[in-house]
Specification:
Elements (H helix, E strand, L loop, with lengths): L1 H12 L1 H21 L4 H37 L2 H9 L2 H34 L4 H28 L3 H26 L8 H8 L3 H13 L9 H6 L4 H29 L1
Organism: Geobacillus genomosp. 3
Keywords: Membrane, Transmembrane, Transmembrane helix
Protein name: Copper ABC transporter permease
Length: 265
């Protein structure tokens, strides 16, 4: 608990975090202003979907830079060495650091979205399940990119390296992954479309978007061609769990492995 309080004090003083959070708040208000004229019965799912599309571009940036620079700050100020010496284990530091970053970033975003949903309840027909689906998709996004940020903070030795690594990760997820898929798309046939589907949805932004669109009823799986039915044959929840395991838990496991390697050195 004391470590969590320490992280909160650092977060509250962090100008970088709040500067990165400002675009989230500003974009959210902009989306809210653009959808308030929609019909009351259809406004909520459209608003939540537009919010998530905005989050896809801003939240990974926020989480990667905050988590990675939080770890880098511990290394530069030598507090990481002091905490490790006190607990006698780098793993203890890593677990507490990961838990603190996850809890605080998720708490800030959840509080903001609960504040934002208040006017939505007056403009649209409000249902709790769609809002919970939106929160779940957003928190899954936060978890994965926080863990990737922590891993990058451990791997990089300088701030220049860290900035480059963060931008490279964002480029891969936002652009490069799709470019590669477009390159192999002409070779996709009915026989291998399920394999292509697996590769396509092994990207967290695709998987979470698919999950939220189906949960909100924005995207229907009815009246699809045979090929598209085979492409969407996996349940969206499976892809969400798979991405959390690969990118979130996988990054945590890699961080633990790197910490153990450092302990041996």
């Amino acid at each position: 608990m004391s470590y969590l309080w320490k992280e909160w004090l650092e977060l509250s003083r962090s100008k970088a975090f709040w500067l990165l959070f400002l675009p989230v708040a500003a974009a959210s208000l902009s989306v809210l202003a653009s959808v308030k004229s929609l019909p009351a019965e259809h406004g909520l799912p459209v608003f939540l979907q537009m919010m998530f599309e905005m989050n896809v571009y801003i939240v990974p940036l926020l989480c990667l830079f905050f988590a990675s620079f939080s770890v880098m700050q511990e290394k530069e100020q030598r507090t990481m060495v002091m905490i490790v010496a006190k607990s006698r284990s780098p793993l203890s530091f890593l677990w507490r650091k990961s838990a603190a970053i996850q809890l605080l970033t998720m708490a800030v975003l959840i509080v903001w979205y609960f504040i934002l949903i208040v006017p939505v309840k007056f403009w649209f027909v409000f249902h709790v399940p769609p809002f919970l689906h939106f929160l779940l998709a957003t928190m899954a996004l936060v978890f994965m990119f926080n863990q990737l940020g922590i891993l990058l903070g451990l791997l990089c030795k300088t701030k220049i390296q860290l900035i480059s690594a963060n931008l490279a990760v964002l480029f891969v997820f936002l652009y490069l992954y799709d470019f590669v898929l477009l390159y192999i798309l002409p070779s996709v046939t009915y026989d291998n479309v399920r394999l292509f589907s697996f590769v396509y949805f092994l990207q967290p932004l695709h998987a979470l978007r698919f999950y939220l669109e189906t949960a909100l009823g924005v995207f229907s799986l009815d009246y699809l061609s045979r090929t598209m039915k085979k492409f969407f044959s996996f349940p969206p929840e499976l892809f969400v769990l798979l991405n959390i395991a690969v990118w979130g838990v996988g990054a945590l496991a890699a961080s633990i492995g790197w910490s153990r390697k450092g302990e041996e050195r």
